[in-house]
Amino acid sequence: MEGCEDDFYKLYCHYHDYFIYLGNLKGASLDKAKDCINDLFLYVFENRARLQHIRNHHNYLVTAFIRNLFRKPHFGAEESLELQDLPEMPVYPSAEAEYIEQTTQKQVTEILQGYINELSDSQNKIVYQKFFLGHTYENIAQLNNISIKTAYNTVYNSVEKLKKLIGQDNANVLVTAISLLAVLFFIIFQ
Question: What is the pTM of this model?
């Protein structure tokens, strides 16, 4: 905002590799992604006074980069990366990442199972059918000889009961643990 070129360069360096990665995900060539990054940061630097109203700088930069990537008239299929040209590289997570994933998943599963066990037998059975087996409400109704509305209401009431049992503090812990698992999956399989 203040025009310090050193700070702007730090911002550019911070986002450069991330935008290269995004460009690769969107199928753009390396040269195309680099051109778009340079165009974006040149525009931001030249128009920084007009862009002071932006509150979420990260979202603005990512959105502007992706739009810039697809807005260019010379972006075409011939420029995108061909999957068969990429060498197949097996992805193996590190031992540490596997250990963290296993222990976190085990702890989350144990905590959730403890709360699920506090549901009635019918609620427990229907929650299992819905969320673990992936059945539709129609399938659950047929399997349990109940109406579809009863299946829906049972799932809804079970989830509400679980929310009350878990409470806000424990829900935050579970969300954090589940988020950690998602981040690990992203890091491992990128």
Answer: 0.39
54 Rama sector, left if φ>0, alpha if ψ -120 to 50, beta otherwise: beta
How do residues 58-79 score in pLDDT, each as one tens digit?
Answer: 888 888 888 888 875 554 555 5
Kindly state the tokens that stand for 8. Answer: 């702007």
Q: Are 30 and 38 in contact (CB under 8 A)?
A: no
Higher pLDDT, 26 or 94: 26
- What residue ranges do the domains of the chain occupy? 5-85, 95-189
90-99: list long-range contacts, CB under 8 Å, 24+ apart: 91/188, 91/189, 93/184, 93/188, 97/184, 97/187, 97/188
pLDDT in tens, 103-118: 777 777 777 777 778 8
Please give the structure tokens belonging to residue 132.
């673990």
E strands, the chain, are none
CATH code at 95-189: 1.10.10.10
